Amino acid sequence: MPIIVNLDVMLAKRKMQSKELAEILDITPVNLSLLKTGKAKGIKFSTLETICKTLDCTPGDILEYRPEE
Amino acid sequence: MKTVRLVARILSALTKVVALGYFVFAAYPALGFLLQWLNLPSAASFIRLEDARTHFEVLVPFTGETFMLGFYQGWYIAKMLTLITSYGIFFWLLSNVFHAFAQKPLFTKQAVERLTAFTVANVLIPFSVAWGIFRNDGDAAVVIIALHLILGVFSYFMTAIFQQGFSLQREQDLIV
Lengths: 69, 176
Description:
By secondary structure, chain A is mainly alpha-helical. Chain A is built from five helices and two strands. Chain A has a single domain, classed as lambda repressor-like DNA-binding domains (434 Repressor (Amino-terminal Domain)), CATH 1.10.260. A two-stranded antiparallel ribbon of chain A has the order 1-2. The relative contact order of chain A is 0.26. Chain B has two domains: 1-92; 105-176. Chain B contains four helices and three strands. Chains A and B meet through α3 of A and loops of B.
């Protein structure tokens, strides 16, 4: 998958725990883990918006396009 | 969907009661015939043999009232009990299908399995039971097989829809 989710990086920068973010997003830690590990098939705009608002970042900080070799 | 779930729950409960009724109606005479064949005196409270043991009457417990009549022949009794048990199975599986419609989310692996079981039962059981036992009883077997086949075909397409829905549901669950 050439779309890389850098949520872990942003969480570390903001010194926030995954569990805390999961609670704010109103999703289970398992689903957040799916998102962080790139196993999720997609992300809703509403989820992305809340992540950006909570972590004070832009979608580009969370998602990255890295072409497959 | 709330109404659908409510109706499905009611129908599931009703059909489960009907299924249990069929199983009891099969088990009770079966127990009576077993006791009769073992020549146990307690058989008299279940079954009464009439007309020089050519006919039987199954009695309502503790009353002596008759609620089932028939020929006292092994083949006839086997046919009767198989038919009653088969409809017990039919209503039990139907109840499971209704129960699947009462679930949230609707498209689950369990729902697909229940619909598959109902489809298979509606195709295989009538063919084996109706054709195997009732083929000499005129058009009855053909009508029974045809009706259950129609149900089976509808159920087959319903299963395909549920299978597709289940796949989409799994995809949807991976969108966070």
